[in-house]
Amino acid sequence: MEHLERFGVSMPAGLLAEFDAAISQAGYANRSEAVRDLARDYLVRRQWATPGGQVAGTITLVYDHHTREVEDTLTALQHDCGDSIVCTTHVHLDHHHCLEAIVVRGRSEEIRAIADRLLSTRGVMHGGLTVTAAAG
User: Fold this and answer.
1) ∠ at Cα 41 (5, 99), nearest 5°?
2) Of 59, 42, 51, 67, nearest to 135 (Cα)?
3) Residue 40's Cα: distance from chain center in Å?
4) Which comes out higher in pLDDT, residue 1 or 115?
């Protein structure tokens, strides 16, 4: 286990009261756990903002598979990005709609470009990029 460092933080009483209420509602055992999660989240966001930062994430797509050539287009785009795509899961939501969850990793700007290409494909109704990275 890594050595823990203690430090003090000063903040207005009202802000601290709101923070305590929010972390209690979220189920945190104490402030330290919540602050560690905030620090990790900040580091992940910086990694995504850094050109060339090595990141990971998921791209989720919901599309109407009856839209002309949508499946062929999505498959071709994914084959073009094979070095960054780790795996894909395909789910039939109903007779018309499919969901794909695509796990990706690579340089932040490449992953965002892949997500933009997939999400802007004709026939994709909804989706998003969820980002993460290995952070302290």
Assistant:
1) 150
2) 42
3) 14
4) 115
Average pLDDT (37-45) is: 91
CA distance linking residue 8 with residue 39, whole number of Å: 15
The pLDDT tens digits for 67-78 are 999 999 999 999
The pTM (predicted TM-score) of the whole model is: 0.81
Q: CA-to-CA distance for 81 and 12, rounded, in angstroms? A: 48
> Contact, 128 vs 119, CB < 8 A?
yes
Q: How far apart are CA 26 and CA 84, in angstroms?
A: 34
Q: Name the phi and psi angles at 73, rounded to 5.
A: -65, -45
Position 135 scores a pLDDT of 58
Within 8 A by CB and 6+ apart from 57, the residues are: 103, 104, 105, 111, 115, 129, 130, 131, 132
DSSP assignment of 119-133, as one string? Answer: HTSTTEEEEEEEEE-
